[in-house]
Amino acid sequence: MKLATQMIRRVAVSALVASTLVAGVVKAATVNVDNTNISNGFMNVFELPSNGGGYVFGSGWGLADLCANWNGSAWVLTPNTIGDPNPFWYTPSGGPGAAGNKTMEANLYAQAAAGAYAGQTVTFIGTVSSNTLAASHQAYIFVRDWASDFSSVNQTIIPMPAGGNFSVSLATINDPSRIVQWGFQVKGPCVWSTDVAPYGSIVIAPQAATPASKSTWSRVKSLYR
């Protein structure tokens, strides 16, 4: 009986070690909401759907120009505002009550060095503290895996939840030249600065760490003491 028990112990321990070694080759990374690496902005501008919805231009923008602000503990996102009253941006022209004349796609994101997450499953986590964005605008959370020249992209993108924790994962291509990004997108017509409040906002904070459970190794050992 004692010999049989010893054999069971050896089999259980061997199986655990083998599974741990196999799990060890799985490459994965988890990134949380912060303001240290989520520090890039890009704006894509489109015609309104009523004007055909065609692409107009895209370029890097500062975070304040995206209407994305870190308040000390969380990101606050609001619909985009353009201070230029030109009819290019507003109908009939800019001012209180004016209608936006362009669809603004504001992208706030972190960008890793080329190859930093090649061949890994990247999971982006955070917490939506509040989401009062009006129906005229849409918001999303994404993880993107770009070709080195940004000519093509693989991505996972989900609608911004009304609240609570989120988790977005993407298995990246194992290519050291590829570039991984994660972040947020707010899309909708530009709004005159004095008219922003009724269009709502989104507050996104880091996801709190969860207490670690006892390891499988500890549980197995406890069975055979």
In short:
With 225 residues, the protein is α+β, with helices and mostly antiparallel strands. The protein has helices at 2-24, 63-66, 216-223; strands spanning 28-32, 38-47, 55-60, 68-70, 75-77, 90-91, 99-100, 102-111, 121-131, 138-146, 153-159, 164-171, 179-189, 202-205.
Q: How would you characterize this protein structure?
A:
The chain has 225 residues and is of the alpha+beta class. It has one domain (2-211). The chain has helices spanning 2-24, 63-66, 216-223, and strands at 28-32, 38-47, 55-60, 68-70, 75-77, 90-91, 99-100, 102-111, 121-131, 138-146, 153-159, 164-171, 179-189, 202-205. The longest helix is centred in the first third of the chain and has 23 residues, at 2-24. Mean pLDDT is 88; it is low at 1-24.
> What can be said about the biggest beta sheet?
6 strands, mixed
How many β strands by DSSP? 14
The portion of residues assigned to helices is 10-25%
Compute the CA-based radius of gyration. Answer: 24 Å
Low-pLDDT stretches are 1-24
Mean pLDDT: 88
How big a fraction of the residues is strand?
35-45%
Bulk shape: globular
Task: Give the H and E element order.
Answer: HEEEHEEEEEEEEEEEH
- What's the number of domains? 1
Question: In terms of topology, how is this protein built?
Answer:
Layout: H1 2-24, E1 28-32, E2 38-47, E3 55-60, H2 63-66, E4 68-70, E5 75-77, E6 90-91, E7 99-100, E8 102-111, E9 121-131, E10 138-146, E11 153-159, E12 164-171, E13 179-189, E14 202-205, H3 216-223
Parallel strand pairs: 1-9
Antiparallel strand pairs: 2-3, 2-8, 4-5, 5-14, 6-7, 8-13, 9-12, 9-14, 10-11, 10-13
